[in-house]
Amino acid sequence: MTTKKPATIAATNGVAQWDRYGAIVPPLQLSSTYAFEGYDKTSGYDYSRSANPNRDLLAETLAKLEEGAGAVVTASGMAAVDLALSQLGQGDTVVAPHDCYGGTYRLLAERARRGDFRVAFVDQGDVAALKAALKGAALLFLETPSNPLMRVTDIRRACDLAHRAGAKVIVDNTFLSPALQRPLTLGADFVVHSTTKFINGHSDVVGGAVIAAREDDLAPLIAWANTTGTIGAPFDAYMTLRGLRTLFVRIAQQERNAAAVAGFLRAQPQVKAVHYPGLPDDPAHALAASQQSGFGAMLSFELEGGIPAVQAFVAAIRIFTLAESLGGVESLVAHPATMTHAAMGAEARAAAGIGDGLLRLSVGLEDADDLLDDLRRAFAAIA
């Protein structure tokens, strides 16, 4: 049988296979418990915290797309990150990016404060600093492209350095999804997602997932998710798979819109910098092109004028919506310093390069001309 292409897997995995009546769409299985076939004999399902058909199908589809051994579907993206970190013990060190998503930074800092493990926040673009931090470390956490500055980490090199030091590697692939990047094929041991974002793509479900490269790393995650109950709900899994069906066509159009927006922003005198690896002169362009199959729909830019300019800008927009989250069909703008990265604190944000004039865009499926007109309106307001 010919191996299916990723877009085909996303669109058809599980279709016309999960229902005795021949339903094309896999049915929603809301039952919390399942009948035993006899004494000490189950059908494979006994209690929905341990296993559920909708959650299992979503996990299977994600594992196929990421080319992993299997996946665990969780209640949120942060639950996925926390599950991936559950393999660490007291005394272990995780090396994390100094410019990661604010929620991830908060989780790592709080876990370290409680003594669950140690954390070293490092500029992972500095190879010497990364090598030094990895000495004695148990885990390397990568986020590429980074949120919100779109910095790209060389996954192959980072995995090689980590494995030489005896550490495993987790990559947060939320910004690109398996449609545009597959970190397990580049050497990573685990991939985490906030499936809330591009994988679901409609801003109506919260969820997460961890995909493991090997079976022996997958089994402890499955067991711990069952023990703690950090699993995703059946309806959420059903809705996420529904969104996943259109991932490839959505992200292709969103990327085209993002390229148009990035080019427009570069020409604005009020913009100090645009962070989008799809721009040919972006510092990360060549590296991104070597390990990604596209540049995605996320970008950020720095406004002259700081907070007053940001306030005028977000008050003038009509099509972009001021909101957190990303990856939906609608375009969003966020102010990281007061929204997604507020938990980092001013000193940590300054070290990461997240200034008060920085705005992050999640570019959606609207007509590109309408998006550019909306931006023109906002720039006119701060001219």
TrEMBL record:
<dbReference type="GO" id="GO:0004123">
    <property type="term" value="F:cystathionine gamma-lyase activity"/>
</dbReference>
<dbReference type="Pfam" id="PF01053">
    <property type="entry name" value="Cys_Met_Meta_PP"/>
</dbReference>
<dbReference type="InterPro" id="IPR015421">
    <property type="entry name" value="PyrdxlP-dep_Trfase_major"/>
</dbReference>
<dbReference type="InterPro" id="IPR000277">
    <property type="entry name" value="Cys/Met-Metab_PyrdxlP-dep_enz"/>
</dbReference>
<dbReference type="GO" id="GO:0005737">
    <property type="term" value="C:cytoplasm"/>
</dbReference>
<dbReference type="InterPro" id="IPR015424">
    <property type="entry name" value="PyrdxlP-dep_Trfase"/>
</dbReference>
<dbReference type="GO" id="GO:0019346">
    <property type="term" value="P:transsulfuration"/>
</dbReference>
<dbReference type="GO" id="GO:0030170">
    <property type="term" value="F:pyridoxal phosphate binding"/>
</dbReference>
<keyword id="KW-0808">Transferase</keyword>
<dbReference type="GO" id="GO:0003962">
    <property type="term" value="F:cystathionine gamma-synthase activity"/>
</dbReference>
<keyword id="KW-0663">Pyridoxal phosphate</keyword>
<comment type="similarity">
    <text>Belongs to the trans-sulfuration enzymes family.</text>
</comment>
<dbReference type="GO" id="GO:0019343">
    <property type="term" value="P:cysteine biosynthetic process via cystathionine"/>
</dbReference>
<dbReference type="InterPro" id="IPR054542">
    <property type="entry name" value="Cys_met_metab_PP"/>
</dbReference>
<dbReference type="InterPro" id="IPR015422">
    <property type="entry name" value="PyrdxlP-dep_Trfase_small"/>
</dbReference>
<dbReference type="GO" id="GO:0009086">
    <property type="term" value="P:methionine biosynthetic process"/>
</dbReference>
<dbReference type="InterPro" id="IPR011821">
    <property type="entry name" value="O_succ_thio_ly"/>
</dbReference>
<feature type="modified residue" description="N6-(pyridoxal phosphate)lysine">
    <location>
        <position position="197"/>
    </location>
</feature>
<protein>
    <submittedName>
        <fullName>Cystathionine gamma-synthase</fullName>
        <ecNumber>2.5.1.48</ecNumber>
    </submittedName>
</protein>
